[in-house]
Model the fold of this input.
Amino acid sequence: MSSMALAQHPDILAQAKAEQEKLKPQGELSNEQLKQMPYLEQVLKEVERLYPPVGGGFRGVVKPFTYNGYYVPQGWQVLYRIERTHQDRRVYTNPSEFEPERFHPERAEDKKMDYSLVGFGGGSRFCLGYAFAQMEMKIFTCLLLRNYQWKLEPNQDLSLSSIPSLHPRSGLKILMIKNSG
Done:
C-alpha cells in the first residue's frame, strides 16, 4: 500500500526520495542508516493509519457499560474497527487525507489519545511481530525509493476491499522503472 500511496502523492514521494538521497547510500543498507529516516517512518505510520493491515479485533468486556443507550454486559465480546479509530476527528486533522507530517514529533497527532494508532493492536494485545513488520516495511520502501521510479497505470479502479486484508479491489498496476547506475 505504501507504493500506491506514494504514487498518488508525488510531493510526498519526492520528499521521501530526498531523505534517502541525503543519506548518500553506499553499500549495504545498515541498521544505523535505518535509524536516520524520520520522514520514511512518518510515511509508514500514515500508511498504517489509512490502510491498516487488519480490519479490527475482538475484546472481552471486563466491566459492563452502556453505549448509545445499549447495555453491554461483562463477558461479552465486542468488535472494534481499526478504520474508525484511525479516522477519529478528535485525534486526526483531516483524517481522510494522506499527511505523514501528522506524525512529526512537533505535531504528534497519534499521541493525543491512547490507542489512536492501532494497526498492530494495542496494550497487552500488541502484535508480537510489530518490530519485525516495521523493519521489513522500512527496508522494502527504502530500497524502492533508492532504486526505482514508479507511477500508477492510468484508469484503474483503486477502490479497496478488506477481505482477506486491505487491497485494491481490482489489483494494483504500477509502472516500475529501475534507476540507472
About this structure: Residues 130-147 form the longest helix (18 residues).
